[in-house]
Amino acid sequence: KPEESLRPQRLKEYIGQKDLKEVLAIAIQAAQARNEPLDHLLLYGPPGLGKTTMALILAAEMQVDCKITTAPALERPRDIVGLLVNLKPGDLLFIDEIHRLSRMTEEILYPAMEDARIDITIGKGQSARTRSLPLQNFTLVGATTRVGALTSPLRDRFGLVQRLRFYEIDELTEIILRAAKILNTPIQSDGAAEIARRARGTPRIANRLLRRVRDYVQVKRSGEAIDEAIAAEALELFNVDPCGLDWTDRRMLSVIIENYGGGPVGLDTIAAATGEDNQTIEEVYEPYLLQIGYLNRTPRGRVATPAAWKHLGFEPPESQLSLL
Ligand code: ADE
Fold it and tell me: Quick check: is 67 catalytic?
């Protein structure tokens, strides 16, 4: 994956998420001093903010291996058992989308997390017996976009539950400058800031946009450094607006505004109008629109805020202002 080479390797190189880094630095230092593995950790927040990166960094800091998997790959009990029995002492097991674990897999994890053992059933029916199999001590790092979708027995078994937040513009600018250096791409800080403003608070998007701008400069302006004007020009071409909204974001807002007078509109309607599924709308698109104050969730559906009306070039009606 192209993302790979841009990932920071150590906590020191990781830009942003100051509170999270502070909490984890303490956990790392304490665990190392006691010669114990890290406590199980649940990371939640919108996609692209660095959950996998953080798991890899934790493993590097603890000098252990990191096995990476995702809940949909752990359908059958033997998938998770195979991973667990092969862990070395202190190893880190990263499970992405952990809210999607099957019930059986989840139940295997409970004693694994709590007592470093698995209970396996041998045989069927009358002759079935359970055997307890000891495991090495390990650290489970779970990641999810929907912490509310976890069952409470699973959530309660994590010693640390931490949220990742959207990045500030100056943090994203720093991330882009770092990535440009690794990619050998000349860039000015105003160019990095322009990309940062359009990156929806998300490093993964920032790095993706940087690559698009880099291609554009290479083809259209051979050799020039990326500055604010070139970045804006390139990203306009790629349909990323000055706030970072793409076609789907704008379509969501325009359906609410133009077809439903600003809302409230149900999630199903928005999903149908954009061709995205409900879950993608809720987990990928809505968090940023909520964050920048363009969207509100109400019990009766989604409402576009006056700021969203203005962004799309409409005058918000009086009735809409009183709804808020
Ligand atoms: N690349 C992607 N995310 C990053 C971060 N948080 N810090 C540094 N580089 C990054």
Answer: no
pLDDT tens digits, one per residue of 282-296: 999 999 999 999 999
Q: Treating both helix axes as pointing N-terminal to C-terminal, what angle do 189-197 and 203-220 enclose, rounded to 10 degrees?
A: 130
Tell me the C-alpha distance between 96 and 243, whole Å: 29
ipTM: 0.97
52 is catalytic: yes
C-alpha distance from residue 315 to each of 153, 158, 269, 324 (Å): 49, 48, 23, 16
Q: What is the pTM of this model?
A: 0.91
pLDDT score at 120: 85
Identify residue 41 by its one-letter amino acid code. Answer: L
Catalytic position from the list 144, 145, 173, 305: 145
What are the angstrom distances between the C-alpha of 280 and each of 150, 224, 248? 18, 37, 11
DSSP structure class, residue 255: I
Q: Which of these is catalytic: 7, 91, 96, 302?
A: 96
Q: Which residues share a beta bridge with 301?
A: 298
